[in-house]
Each structure stands twice: as C-alpha cells, then as structure tokens.
Amino acid sequence: MPYAIQLINITKRFARTVANDNVRLAVLDGSIHALVGENGAGKTTLMEVLYGLYQPDSGKIKIHENEVTIRSPHDSIKLGIGMVHQHFMLVPTLTILENIILGAEDAKHGFLNLSRTTSRIAELADSFSLSVPLNERVQDVGVGIQQRVEILKAIYRRADILILDEPTAVLTPQESTQLFGILSELKQQGKTIVLITHKLNEVMAISEHVSVMRKGKIAGELDTAETNPQEIAQLMVGRPVLLKVEKDKSKTGHPVLSVNDLSYVDRRGIAILKDVSLEVSSGEILGIAGIEGNGQTQLVEAITGLLKPTSGTIMLNGINLGDLSVSQIFESGLAHIPEDRIKRGLVVDLPIKENLILGMHTRNEFSSRLSMKLSGIEQNAKLLIEKYDVRPPNPDALARELSGGNQQKVIIARELSRNSKLIVASQPTRGVDIGGTEFIHRTLVSERDNGKAILLISADLTEILSLSDRIAVIYDGRIVKVFSDNKVEESELGLYMTGTKGNGKTAALA
Amino acid sequence: MARQRHWLEHPVTQNFLVPILAVVLSFSVGAIFIAIVGQNPIEVYYVLFSQTLGNEYGIGQLLFKTTPLIFTGLSVAICFKAGLFNIGAEGQLQIGAFLTALVGMYTFGVPAYLEVPLLILAGMVGGGIWGFIPGYLKAKTGAHEVINTIMLNFVALALVSYFATNLFNVPATVHTPPIAPSGKIPRFDAFLSGFEGSPVNFSIFIAIAACIFVWYYVQRTKLGYELRVVGLNSKAAEYGGISVAKNLILSMTIGGALAGLVGTNYVMGYKYYFEEGFSAETGFMAIAVALLGNNNPFGVILAALLFGMLEYGGLVINTMVPKELVNILQAIVIIFVISSNKIFRKTLNNFLKTRRLSIEQ
C-alpha cells in the first residue's frame, strides 16, 4: 500500500528546545494512524509542521509519495490536508453553512451561489453520515456537532488526509462513540486519518498503527493489533507505568462535608444549581461526573467560599460555612485544587516559593505581624519541591516557566500541605501527562487512606471511575444519580450525564 | 538541552539595558529635531549635559526637579504593582502640598522636631485622602480608577486654586502666607556653599527613604505580598482568601500619600508657602518615570534623575532652541521607552539566537 504522508527526518527547534528531533513518520494511505505522546512530546508541533504553520529546520515531507514544500496552511489545504484543532476555529455567530464555506465560497461576481453550495454540502454530509443542521448558528449547537462541522469543513475543501488533535477531549462517551463511527466511515471511503491523542483506550479502539513520541523523538512505531496500552504507556513515559490506580476498599468514617439543598441563581436569573445535596465522609472519594457546564464550577465555588449560594447550607466538620470568608473556610479544614490552575490556582509571575504559600501567607511559619519570613518560605519551598518532585527544583523559578504537570504539582503540594480534613479536587489532572497523572492519582488515594474526605470533580470519566468510592452524576445543576460504588459502565454514566436517564429528578442520597 | 544563558539574556541585564538603549535612541531622534530648527545637536547636548551635570549649581537644580518626580513616580509605581493605573498623582500632590502649607501657617511656635513631622504627615494625609477616594470607589463599585483619578485631578486643582487665590492667600498674590519657620527643611547651600542659589534641600532624603519604604513594603511585608498577588492575578488572590478590595484601597491610599509628600520639597524646602501652579504637571510626568523605572523603586530614582535633568536642562538650552523642543525630547523618550520593551527585547534575543545558531553550525 502506498503512503499518504511521509515525514523524513524532521527537525524543528524553538529558542531553547528541540521540539522535533529527526522525526520519521509514515502513514499508510487509507489508514487511521494514532500519534501519541505526553504533553510537550512534540506531536502537535509535528502536525503543525505538516499543516504549514511551522517550517521545519531540516527534513523532508512527502505527500502521496511526492516531495512537497508546505509554507502555509494554504499549501497544505491544496495538497488535501485538513486539520481539526483541539480548540475549534469556528465563528460562533455565523451559521454552520456559513462556517463551512468561509474562505472557500462558491461565488460568481461576488455573489454567493447558496443553493448549489447547500446541496453540495448536504450531499457530502450524507455520504459520510455527518448530519448537521446547516442553518443553525454554531453558538446554538453542542460541541459534538461543532466538531462535525470542523470535519465537514475540511472535507468540503477536498481534504483526503485529516489530522484530528485530541478530538475527544471535549466529548461525552456517546459523542466519542459517534465520532469513531464517523472516522471509520471516512476511512472506508479512502480518507487517511491521523489521530493525536493521549487516551490509550482510543488508540486501541480505532487505530491500525500507532507512533509514540517522547521528548521530541519517535520512541516507537507499533501495529495496534500487536501491542497493548501498557507497552504504549511505557514508551510514552520511558518507564513502566501503573495505568490502573491501585487502592483498597475505603474505610469510611464520619461525614466531613455535608451540602444540603444548595441552590444558586446567577445574575441573569438562571438557576445553575438546583437543590444539590451531598455528603463526603472521611476516608472516601466522592466523584462528581458530568459534562462541563452543568453546575460543577459553581458547586465547587460555593463550597470553597468564592460564590455565595442563593439558598442551602454547607457544613464542614460541623461548622456552617454560610458566612465565613474564604480564608476562614480554609482554616476550618479545606484544601482546594481549582479547576483552572492558571486563572485561579497560581500567580504565574511569582516564583514557586511564593506560590507555595498562597492562602497560607499569614501563618506563623511564613510571616510575623508585618514582615514575611523569607527563610521559612524558602524552607517550605525546598521541602515541598523535593517531596512532590517539582521540576525544575528551583524555588525562585517563576511558575510561568513550569510545564502544566509541574504547575499542577505546585498547587497540589501547597493544598496538601495545609493538612486539611476535606480536599476539593477539581479537574486535578487536566492537561497533565500520564506520568504526572499517575503521581496525582496515587497522591489522592494515599490522602484518602490517611482519612481525608475527597470531593473529586472531573470531566474525565476514566478518572472518576478509577478513583471514586462513590459516584454522583450532575446534570443541569442537579445531582441526578448517586452510585454507591464505582462498578458502573461508562455508557451508563453517559446516559445520566446527558440527561437521557434520571432527568428532572433529584437523586435521593444514601 | 540545558544551556548556559548568555549574560545578555538575563532578565536583570535586560531590565537595565533596554531602558538605556531607549534613552540613547530617543536622544538620537531628538538630534534630528534640533537640526531641523537649525542648531548643532552636539553643541546643544553639550550645553545640556555640562550645565546640568557639570557643576554643583546645576546638580542642585537637577536634584530639586528630581525630588517631586521620585515621590510621584513611586506613587504611580506602587499602584501599578497592585494593578491600578494612578493618573491622579497630580491631584494628590496638590492637595497634599496645600495641606502642608495650611497646617504650617497655623502652627507657629511648635518646636521643629514636632513641626517637621507634623507637616510631612499633613501632606501624606491630604494626598492619602485623594488616593483613598478612587481606590474606595474602585473596590466597592468597580468604577474605573483611570477616570476617577482624572476627574479628581480637576477637582483638586480647582480647589487649591480657589483657596490659594481667594481664601488663604496673601492679598494680591496667588500664594499662601509662609509656614512656621520651625517647619522648614534646610537647603543644601546652608551647609555646602557650592550649591549656593540652588533650591535643592534635604527632602530628597525623604524621597530616598520613601523608595526604601516602598521596596520593603512591596517585597518584604505581608501586605506587600498580598498587593503583588492582587496586582498579578486578582482571581488567584480571591481563591487564596486575600481581600482584593482592601488591597486596592490600601495601595491607592499609600500611592496618594507618597504623592502628597511633594510638598516637603516645595513648601517646606524651597518657597515656604503654597503657590498656585507650582507643580508644573509633575504628577503626569510621574507616569513616564514609573514606566521608565520599570515600577521598581530604585528604577524610579534613576528615571526621575533623567526627567529631572531634562526639565532643568530645558531651561538651560532655552536660549539656543525653543522650549517646545525639550517637550518633544521628553515625549520621544517616553514613546521609545513604552514601545521599546517588546521591540528591543525581541531584537536582542533574535540577535543572540542567530549568533548562537551560526556558532553551532
């Protein structure tokens, strides 16, 4: 079989790093090829070189066995390459039809030929089972549909090679299954697909070949049928990795957090949280599963004092948090790993050591009545950097200079050093690579074993399922279902997450 | 991949190098303007530098102009650190200086060791109130401090102008009666005859002390830590339980109090009364001083020296070129400094990169 893409000895340097180091990648025509690797391994850079967003410092590119030079996306589109970015490049206020033809309009003398365009797109959509409502505005449809629009956009531009960057990051399990159906259909009709991902179950489910990148180099090329997730993970990280979280049965103690009938109506008068009740006991992890935007953010902010709920009570260790300030809530036994580390969790322009005391700077170890205690701050930093293996191990390095995984480690180190009773962990491994995720998961489980109560909010179902002792599903601001163990199928969770099951009813809590 | 950093890449080096480069370049562009008005730039610059830096009198004049720029530059800089843009240093210094004069004219007979601190305090309170108001409005209502500080400048200028020409003035003048003699801050020329005739006085040491205070406050105190967190990421401050409102109000108040210290230089150290229009828009030049000084208290001293030199130098070269030319030169310096950060750093780093690559190959 001929090759659709051949990247031969591609090297791409940035100011201080070599993003791609002599990379070879060959993708067979008409196949689905997975490109996996940890964050910063260079996979996105490699694909951006192929798409013409970057020029390689050296190396050759062959498309359909012909050597080509790709100077811009314009060139790559002409060569039949289409890219679906992780963050969609759509204009929200335009209709789906307008978005698809944007930049490739079928026009005569400046007038659009809409009827011909519409029928052509409808035909395309039909032949690939990519049904989309062409006349709806992009802002009014869900992310699953938006992604199909991106794919359709590429096909409309006659792409026969499709690059998808982390396509399932924003999808529910059902939507992911549908996406894989579409990808198989595309393959059947002769398209070549490169799938960038770090979810190994997806690699196993849909790809035929897999290339693993580590630190800018190709660490392995495998036939999917002849490998397993363990082997791929080991190639990605460079050492054996525990993919499954090992934990014993929880030794649940007394309730630490109890939320009763919590409601929140936002300034526009929209009810975001509706009578949410839940309880987390010491020694257990309660996972909240749900598609983002169903009230998780507000639930966490209400518990941590960042948002004033409209009604309901929150008790922590028997203390009503109602009128307490954020710092008082921290003092009554909270640790909070926020969902957005850059926006909330860190001051990226301050050094690691000063980030490690955020919210604790008034403690005796770190300040006297007026002044900061520099040596205490420095020591704390050295201790935590070593304990949590933060890299670079330099207390004076700015948080901005750290990788996502290390930034997350700084936050986790700080929050766990509070010695709290309750840990609210929101998306604790978002954007963190496999090695870091493994570490964070192990840490959370060991905190649980030390008797902490943990409230885990995550959009990643695998994470929810592998860490939680109990699982609550949130949909449209309500807890619609509580599972008293974690022995539940992803698809079952998905049905509750999308409101297909349990809709409208608030689940009774055990 | 870990590689030795070239010394030119070090942020501290660049923090010094970039503003210096900007100043040198703006003087070069200024030379073109001097040539256009038909003068020899080298001659003009020679006079400018020799008359300001070449003798004690010149230095004295320069330092006198520098002192208020340090106070107000610090005022703008500390607000910048908290993420606030204080355009109100002019109003704050007017109210502060007026209050210094007002308290001074009613407190005759108080010994110097009480009178001097009292008058300094009066200036700080006046400026502090004028900073507190926009800080409070920002914290409680979200009203933008840029607009409110500009508006309060108008109010302050109108108020002190009315007081200094109608209510508290010496008849037929636009200034107040003199302050109590015990409130005077001595001039340099009382001790060093070389400074004879130049108005520089010991308030410049108050300015330097203020710099040390601001540095210590921002970098070493608990409140300074909170102020930096609020300025760099108010969402993270909220998350960490730091009161954003308190720190906004506090930084504006401290900023105002710093600007209010300008009266020590003029009222206590030079004229011994408040006079309408004494400040020559120092409070606006302060924004440029803070920018050029990178909002660092010691950078502010250097920047204030430069602008102080330009201000006095403008008078010196007035016979050779129109005084507007000095305004042009000041403006060019500001423009270069503001735009230089990105351009120069990028050029410098690109240069280093290409040099490195050519060495590697």
Q: What can be said about this structure in brief?
A:
The complex is a heterodimer of chains A (510) and B (361). Chain A is of the alpha/beta class and 510 residues long.
Structure report:
The complex is a heterodimer of chains A (510) and B (361). Chain A is built from 17 helices and 22 strands. Chain A has 510 residues and is α/β, with parallel strands linked by helices. Chain A has three domains: 3-237, Rossmann fold (3-Layer(aba) Sandwich); 253-333 and 421-510, P-loop containing nucleotide triphosphate hydrolases (Rossmann fold), CATH 3.40.50.300; 340-419, no CATH class. In chain A, α14 packs parallel to α15. Chain A starts with a strand and ends in a 13-residue tail after the last helix. The mean pLDDT of chain A is 90. Chain B has helices spanning 11-36, 41-53, 56-81, 89-105, 112-141, 145-167, 203-220, 222-232, 234-239, 244-260, 262-268, 282-292, 297-316, 323-360. In chain B, α2 (41-53) packs across α3. Helix content of chain B is 73%, strand content 0%. Chain B is built from 14 helices and no strands. Chain B has a single domain, classed as ABC transporter involved in vitamin B12 uptake, BtuC, CATH 1.10.3470. Classes of the chains: A alpha/beta (510), B mainly alpha (361).
Which characteristics define this entry?
heterodimer, A: 510 residues, alpha/beta, Rossmann fold, 17 helices, 26% strand, B: 361 residues, mainly alpha, ABC transporter involved in vitamin B12 uptake, BtuC, 14 helices, 0% strand, globular
